[in-house]
Amino acid sequence: MMRLQGAMPRNKGIAVQGPALRLPRLSREGAQALAGALGAVLLWELAARWLAGSYLLAGPVDVARYLQANSGLMGRALAITLENAAWGFVAGNLAAVALALVVVMAPRSQPVVAAFALVVFCLPLVATGPILRVLYGPGSGPQITLAALAVYYTTFIPLMVGLRAAPASWFDLMRVYGRGAWTAFVQVRMMAALPYLLAGLQIAAPAAFLGAMVGEFTGAERGMGVLALRAMRGLDVEATWALATVAAGVAMLAYGALGWVARALAPARPEVLLAPPPATAVSGRAGRALRGAGVALVSLVLMLALWWGVMEAFGLNRFFAKRPDDLWGFLVTAPNAAANRAVLWEASAQTLAFVLPGYLAGLGLGAVLAMVLVLAPGIAGAVLPVAVALRSVPIVTTAPLIVLALGRGAAGTITIVAVMIFFPALVACLQGLRQAPGQVLDVMATYGASPLSRLVHARLPAMLPAFFAAARMSVPAAVLAVTVAEWLATGTGLGNLMALTASTSNYNLLWSAVVLVALGSAAGYALVGAVERRVLARVAPEQLR
Amino acid sequence: MAEQSAGRGPAIICAGLAKTFGSGPAAVEAVAPLELTFGAGELTALVGPSGCGKSTVLRMVAGLEAPSAGAVTLDGAAPADLQGAGELAMAFQDASLLPWRSVRGNVALALKLARRPVDLAAVDAMIARVGLAGFEGARPAELSGGMRQRAAIARCLVTQPRVLLLDEPFGAVDELTRARLNADLPALWRAQGTTALLVTHSVREAVALADRIIVFSSRPAQVVADLPVPDAVSPDTADGRALMAQVTEALSQGWDDDAAAGRHAAQ
Lengths: 545, 267
Fold this sequence. Notes:
- The complex is a heterodimer.
- By secondary structure, chain A is an all-alpha fold.
- Chain A has 20 helices and no strands.
- In chain A, helix 4 (110-121) packs antiparallel against helix 6.
- By secondary structure, chain B is α/β, with parallel strands linked by helices.
- Chain B has ten helices and nine strands.
- In chain B, the strands form two sheets. A six-stranded mixed sheet of chain B has the order 5-6-7-3-8-9, with helices on both faces.
- In chain B, helix 3 crosses helix 4, helix 4 packs across helix 5 (145-157) and helix 8 (203-209) packs across helix 9 (238-254).
- The interface between A and B is medium-sized, with 32 and 38 residues.
C-alpha cells in the first residue's frame, strides 16, 4: 500500500527503520562528527606544542606516552573506580525508579517528593564525602553512595515525566476491556516511560563516574580519584592530563554505549527530557504562593524528621552525626552563635561571587554559540557531537586542568563553573533550536525572512524550554563545580570551609555548611523555575500544560 | 441493512442520561438528560457541533465516564459488565496504537486484554480482512494514517465485540482515504451483527454508513433531529443528497452562536 495519506501527526520525529540490514557506511553526520573529533584533538596537540615548557598542558602525544608507561597502575585504578561507579549507578537508579513509582501511585505526593529529591541532590558532594567517610569507615561505601547521589535525580525527573507521557486514549483502551491500573501500568506506562528512563540512564552513566571519583578524593586508598589528587598536588602535568583523558574517555564511552542501547531498545527519543515545573492548579498569585509555601514547609518538616530519624535509628554518635537541634544550638542559641553565622556568611559570599559570574557566563556562552551555530549549520554538525561528548566529561577531571592553566584565583574558578555549565547549555540550546516547528519556518521562508529574523521569531521561542531546563539543572552543577574548585584550589568559600572543617572535625560548622549549600542550591533551582514559568507563559504557553 | 444483522449486538438504552463536569460556578453541563434507544445490530451516527457532548455520550456508553444522572443499559447489562467480557470495543480519532508493538502485537493485545486465548492465525486473518496483509510486523510509525486506522479497526473487531464505539475514527485522514475506509471496513462489523455508534463530523460519512442519524445541538447535547437512513440511500443518490441537506439544516438549527463564541474564547 502506498503512503498517500501524507503526514503522520504524532510520530513525526521518529526515524523509520528500514527492514533490510544495511552495511555500515559513514554517513554525512558521521563524517562531520569524525571531523569535529579530529579537529578537537588536533587543536589540543597544537595548543600543547605552543605552550610547551610552561607546565600547563600535556598534548595527546604526551598523554599517550604516559599512559603506555603507567598502564598497569592506571588499569588497576580504573577498575576500582569503575566498580564503585557501577554499584552507585545501580543503587542510584533503583532509588530513582522507586521515587518515580511513589509519585505515580500517589500523585498528590509529587511536590513533596520532588522537593525532597531536589534537596538531597543538592547536598554538596565535597562535604557529604568526608561525612560519609566517617559514617562508613574505610572501604568503598562513600564512593558508591556519592555515585548514587550523583545519578538518581537526573533519572528520577525524566522517568517521572515518562510515566505520565502516554496519551489518555491508551488508558481508555485498557479500561474499555475492563482492565485496571495494574494492566495500564504494565502495558502502557512502563513501555511509554522506557525511552525517558533510558535517556536518564545515559546522563547517569558519566555522573556515576564523577560521583565515584569525588568519593575517592575523600580518603580512599585506591582509584582514579586518589591518583588525580596525588598528581595535582605534585603538579604532575602529564599524569593530570592522562587521568583526565582516561576519565573523559570512560565517561564518553559510557554515554555513547548507553545511547546505543537506548536507540536499539526504544527508537523514539523523548521530545522534552526535563519538563518545566508543573503549573499548579491553584489559580491566582496569592493561592500559588500559599501552596508553594505549604509544600516547602511540609517538605522541610519531613526532611528534618527523616534526618533525625536516620541518625537515631542507626544510633550514630552525636559528635560527628549532627541532628537538626545541634545545628539550631550552634547557629542560634549558643553564646558564640553570631560568630558562627558570620563565618558561614563570609564563606557563602565568597562562593556566590564565583557561582554567579560563572553560571551566567556558561549559560550565556552556550546559548549564544548555539545560535551562531544554527546560522552556520555545517559547523553545527561537527560541533554538536563533540559538545555532547564533552558534556559528559566529569568536572572533577577538568577542574585540576583548569587550575593548572589559570591558577588558583578567581579566573580559574569562574572558568571551571562556566565550562561545567557551558556544554550542557550548548547541547540543550542546539537541540531546542532544532525543534522549531517546520511549518513556522516555512511561513517565514515564504516571506523571504532573513536567517537572523528566522532565528529571532521562530527558533528562539522553540529554544527557550530547553534553555531553561538546562538553566535549572545547572544551578546544583555550578555549586558543585565551585565547591570542588574552592576545595582543590582557591582555599576560600564554602568548599574550602567544608574541606577544612571535615579535616579539623568541626562537625557543627561542616553540617551547617552542608545544609546551607543544599537549601541554597534548591532555592536557586526553584528561582530559575519561577522565572521559567513566567517567561514560558508568555512565549510558549503550550509547554506548561 | 438492518435485517442482515439479526442482532448479536444488544439494544442500547440511554435513560435520563446526563453529564455535568465540575461543580459550583465552574460546572459545565455537557449532556442534558437524554432518552434514546439505539437499535440492536444497527449503526447509529451521532453528529453535532464540536464540543457539543456527543463524545461524552459515547464515553458513557463505553463505561469510561460515569453519568451524573440516569443510566446506560445494554440489553439490561451495565457497560462495565460488557467491558470485562471483551464484548465492547472502541476506536479513537488518533488510532491509539501502542507504538512499541507491531500491527500484529497491537491486534493481539485486544485478545490478551479481553483474557481470550491469543490465536495468531485469527489475528493475521483479521489483519488481512482490513487490507493490511503483509504489514503484520510493521510498527505504527511505519504506517500511514489510513493504515493505522485499519489496524485500529482490526484491533476492535478481533474480539468480535457486540458493541462497537467509533469516536471519529476517520476524522484525521484525508477525504480519499476516508472514502476508501468507509467502503472497506463497515461490512466487517455488519457481518458480525454488532451494534455500533459512530461519532462523526462528516455528514456524508453519516449518510453513507449509518442506519440512523441523530443530530445533536450545541452543548449541552440535546437531540434536534432523529433521521432514519433507508437502505437504498447513499450520498450519491438524489434521496441521499436530500438527506444530507436535511442533516445540515438540523445542524445549523442546533448551532448556538453564543455557545460557539464562548467555546472559541475559551480556546
